[in-house]
Amino acid sequence: MRAGVVFTQTAWTLRCLGALLMFPPAHLYAQVHGLEVRPVDYEVRSEEPRHPVTIPFHITNATGRHQTLQARPVMPRQWRLITPELPFELAAGETTVRFVSFFIPEGTPAGDYPFTYEVSSRQQPAVRDAYTISIQIAPMPKLQVAPVQVPELIIAGDPYWAAFLIRNSGNVPLMITYAAQHSQAVPLAPESGRLHLAPGESKRVEVEVKTKPVEQPENDWLTVKAGLEEKKITKSITRPVRILPRVSGYEQRYHTLPAVFRVIGVMQERKGARHLGWQAELSGYGTLDEAGRRHIDFLFRGPDLRGEAIFGQIDEYRINYSDERWAMSLGDQVYGLSPLTELFRYGRGARAGYDAGQWGVQSYYMQDRFTTEAQEEIAVNAHYTPRPWTRLEVNYLNKQGPLASKARWPAIFTACAATWDGRRGST
After folding, report:
1. Which of the four, 29, 103, 227, 387, has the lowest number of CB atoms within 10 Å?
2. Which helix (H) or strand (E) holds 403?
3. Domain limit, last residue, from 191, 218, 244
């Protein structure tokens, strides 16, 4: 009876040993195949998005022979390796440490992510081992507030709209509250609100601002603040708005134009010597009458500083005038008739045009500033509109200079007609 019991226990023990030999546990897999991969320090890592991560691994070759090994990291699709994994040699019984670096992109949602480091033999693919660690992405609430459209000049008494963009640049959903403030405590609509933003989502916020009558130009300040209800995270942005009086408190004798005068200085060090240059610039734009029908703009900047430093600007002198019929330009401009005749060119010259409504004509003379040949052009354009959807144009371009003589094309004539039938939607 005792012998039967011993025989039964012995048979059961032999069966268990046989099962272990046929199906070894996962942690004995590397020992059976002679290759072992283990992390150096932690099996769980806590990281933040938008940061590079480096993890060291111990690689042990217990196969009894020299091996050429290849590593393959397995991670989420959006993550990117910083250093490529190249094959490496490992002698029998040798142990080495491999560093794998990767980048976690911004906006990765918070949570646990597996990272597997797998190493296999190139001569014997069955000789392999892998280890998986857990990467814990911490929640990172972040806010951004940026201006989209804020006017620079406003007539006092007129309302205006200002637009801002509020963005959730973190990796968790946020319930955001925002509020608008004005330096003059004028009515705002809306003054505050709430937004629910998913990670990476942005929403546009528009605020209507009422303005008060003023007698002198003033600078107002518009501020938009955004914050989280449950955490003390606040972002704000402030933009100035120039308020101009509709009617001044005194009668002006002369009509004025807004203008800006500035002095530009550049410096560059070459061959141990410092080269310093100065430029003066006067620019402005506006109307010549109270009705706002005659417009003018000008720019005077010099001298040329391109030879003094890489940030030096070209000298430019130009003035433009336009009204309901006439348009005239003088100085450094972009001149051209149409892409069909020739690409537009930048040069120094003069241009005049007249538009009578149904017909019009314009002409210009210019000398190219950016070519050593100093090419000159004389051009004329005439157009006629017999019907609202039909326009006929005739262009004449005369080139003078070495380039024109080489091409044997001193004059170019082009004629074009464009017709649009609005009822049938065809050209």
Report:
1. 387
2. helix 402-407
3. 244
